[in-house]
Every structure is written in structure tokens, then in C-alpha cells.
Write a structure and sequence with these properties.
The protein contains 13 helices and eight strands. The protein is of the alpha+beta class. The strands form two sheets. It has a five-stranded antiparallel beta sheet.
């Protein structure tokens, strides 16, 4: 009877104690989150309750397993398994706690500067994201190395591994040259303020917003809901447009190709009226002028302003659409049209090789007539 109750007490007690401590900790975090609305720390810490309970359970069971007398023939294997679970869940818990602290610090910083310096906030967000990825990678590598050291075979092979570390490092460096260059490029992007999460960029003719930045690749979310994944080394080796660099304010251009009779002054007045009714226009400036001409049309350019890249797109399409509609309704003659007039034929030549006028009289006779003695043409 004792051999049956002891494992139940040890295992069941570990489970019950883990649930009680986990529930009490989560209750305290929830109360703290309700009391302190100004900080998201306590709510973010609640995301770590699963690894926290795993750590508690593995630690309690690992410490009391020897008293359970359960699976004595496999005690070493079970003990090592519990140790591995304890190490893995502890690493998971450390990552969650670090993420909660970093996210809380960023939230406070963003709330304080979101309206004054949005570009700086995006830069800090990019740096925080990459730092968390580096921290997660370091914790994961340390946890994996610690797990391997629990096996005696790996501890015995440690000396030989250290002896060959130099050769392996050279081989790995040559083999992973591209990956390492992307990693260093990722750090350069994060701390060099070249591109940030949320920036509007144009790469390879594609317009979009930077959605994700990692140590090796960058994702651009295009306007048509596509995702373009590019190595971060692209942004350190090739030119690209960053519309969010500096101040987010932008100036947009709208072109029309119109007939030479288009009412330019009336178009200026209409542009002013269109912009006044467009919420995306920031009211800073506008202009309309003729910038070029061709034998059949002239090019009219409008300059408009907006507070950011999204609004400048809205202003441009609104001005282009409403101006074309107004011209079609009020001034249809201003739209470009195809010339269908009869062609003027060149003057013909008579049989003597002299150019003839339409009435058939040679041009030389029409030009030199009157006083033949003077030898001078008629004035």
C-alpha cells in the first residue's frame, strides 16, 4: 500500500502544488494589471504562466522523484528528462520575462514621443525587435548547450571539440559567409537608422511599407497586399527610396496631357477647390503650371502636399480624377484629340523642272515680270 501511495503523493502533490502556485501568481498579476493601467508589464508577464508552471512542476518533481520509488530501473533517464524539461522551460520563461520588460519600456517611450517624433519611435521599435531576437537566440543557444552538457558523452567530447574549434570556425565562416554578412547588415540597419519598421520604401520599383526586420531578411508589405522578402544586405549595398526618412511630409506631382486651348487659369481655381474639399491635403502648398508642350498637346503639372506617404497618394488620385471629370464636363475642348484636317499637298513641279503655282504660272515668271529692261524683280 505504501509503494502505491508514495508515487501518487509525490506526483499528485507536485501537480497540485504547481496548479495552486501558478493560479495564485496569475491572480496577483491580474490584480496588479487591473490596478496599474498605465503600464502593460503585469499583463505581459501573464503570458509566461505556461513556462512558469512547467518550471515549477519540473523542479518539484525532479526534487521529489527519488522519494517516489517509481521506475527505479529508469531513474537516470527520467531524471535527465526532467532536467531537460526544467532547462527548456526556464529558458522559455526568461525569454518571456525579457520580452515583457522590453515591450513595457518601449510602450512608455512610444507613448511619450509618438506625436513629437514618430520617426524616432519607429527606429527604436526596429532596434527593440532585433535586440529581442538576439536575446532569444543567445538564451536558446545557452539552453541547448546546457542540455547537451547533461549527457556524459558530450562532456567527454568537450576537449576534442575545443581543440578543433579553430578549424571548424574557419570552415563555418567560409560556408556561412552570406549569412554572416546579412547578420551584420541587420545590425547596421537597426543601429544605423537606414530603414525602420513602418517606413514607406520603394525597392525595385515596388512601393510598400516595411513590415518585419530580422537579422537576415526584411519583409515589405506592398499596397496590393503582397509581401516581398529581401535579404537585409540589399539595403546596405543598393540604393532605395525611403519616403519616411526625415520628416514624413511629402510633395506629390500630378500630370495631365491636354490640348493647347485648355483653360489653365480655370484649372488653378479648380485645383484649389478640389484640395479644400480633400481631407488628406495638409494645406501647406499647391501649384499648377504648364511644364512642356508637343505639336499636339501640352503637359500640365500640379504640385500638392500631404503629411505622409499614404495621404499624398490619396491627394494625387483625388486631384487627377476630379480634374479630368471637371474638364470632360465643363471644358471638353481641353482634352487631347486627334487632328483629322485635310493634309496640304506640297507644290507640284512642271515638266521644265520649275516649281509651279496653283494657277499653273511658273514661279519665276510670277516673281520676275513688269520692267524687263531693269532686270530687277518687282517690289
Amino acid at each position: 500500500m505504501e509503494n502505491l501511495l508514495r508515487p501518487l503523493i509525490v506526483v499528485g502533490g507536485s501537480v497540485v502544488l504547481t496548479l495552486v502556485i501558478g493560479w495564485a501568481t496569475d491572480f496577483l498579476l491580474r490584480k496588479a494589471d487591473e490596478r496599474h493601467h498605465e503600464t502593460p508589464l503585469w499583463g505581459l508577464l501573464r503570458r509566461g504562466r505556461i513556462p512558469y508552471m512547467l518550471v515549477l512542476f519540473a523542479a518539484l518533481l525532479r526534487g521529489s522523484y527519488d522519494e517516489a520509488d517509481l521506475l527505479e530501473s529508469r531513474a537516470d533517464g527520467v531524471g535527465r528528462t526532467l532536467t531537460l524539461i526544467l532547462i527548456g522551460s526556464a529558458a522559455w520563461l526568461v525569454i518571456r520575462i525579457a520580452a515583457a520588460i522590453v515591450e513595457t519600456s518601449y510602450s512608455r517611450y512610444a507613448n511619450a514621443r509618438a506625436h513629437r517624433d514618430p520617426a524616432r519611435v519607429r527606429r527604436v521599435r526596429t532596434q527593440v525587435t532585433l535586440i529581442m531576437r538576439v536575446v532569444s537566440a543567445i538564451v536558446g543557444v545557452v539552453a541547448a548547450a546546457t542540455m547537451l552538457l547533461t549527457f556524459p558523452a558530450f562532456r567527454a567530447a568537450g576537449a576534442s571539440l575545443l581543440a578543433s574549434a579553430g578549424i571548424l570556425g574557419i570552415v563555418a565562416g567560409v560556408a556561412a559567409q552570406s549569412t554572416l554578412s546579412n547578420m551584420f547588415a541587420g545590425f547596421q540597419i537597426a543601429f544605423g537608422d537606414m530603414v525602420r519598421i513602418g517606413d514607406t520604401v520603394v525597392v525595385d520599383g515596388e512601393w510598400g511599407t516595411v513590415e518585419e526586420i530580422t537579422l537576415t531578411f526584411l519583409t515589405v508589405h506592398t499596397w496590393d497586399e503582397r509581401r516581398i522578402t529581401m535579404p537585409v544586405s540589399y539595403f546596405t549595398s543598393k540604393p532605395f527610396e525611403n519616403w519616411s526618412r526625415g520628416t514624413p511630409q511629402m510633395t506629390g506631382i500630378v500630370f495631365w496631357h491636354l490640348d493647347h486651348s485648355a483653360p489653365v487659369e480655370a484649372m488653378r481655381d479648380k485645383l484649389r477647390d478640389i484640395l479644400r474639399e480633400c481631407p488628406a491635403w495638409d494645406g501647406r502648398a499647391y501649384n499648377l503650371s504648364v511644364t512642356d508642350t508637343t505639336p499636339s498637346t501640352m503637359q500640365v503639372r500640379a504640385l500638392v502636399t500631404a503629411k505622409d506617404a499614404d495621404d499624398i497618394w490619396t491627394v494625387r488620385v483625388t486631384v487627377r480624377e476630379q480634374m479630368i471629370g471637371w474638364l470632360a464636363d465643363e471644358h471638353p475642348y481641353a482634352l487631347p484629340r486627334v487632328n483629322t484636317a485635310d493634309a496640304i499637298l506640297p507644290p507640284s513641279y512642271n515638266g521644265n523642272g520649275h516649281r509651279s503655282s496653283p494657277d499653273g504660272v511658273p514661279a519665276q515668271q510670277r516673281r520676275y515680270h513688269g520692267n524687263h529692261n531693269s532686270g530687277r524683280p518687282e517690289r
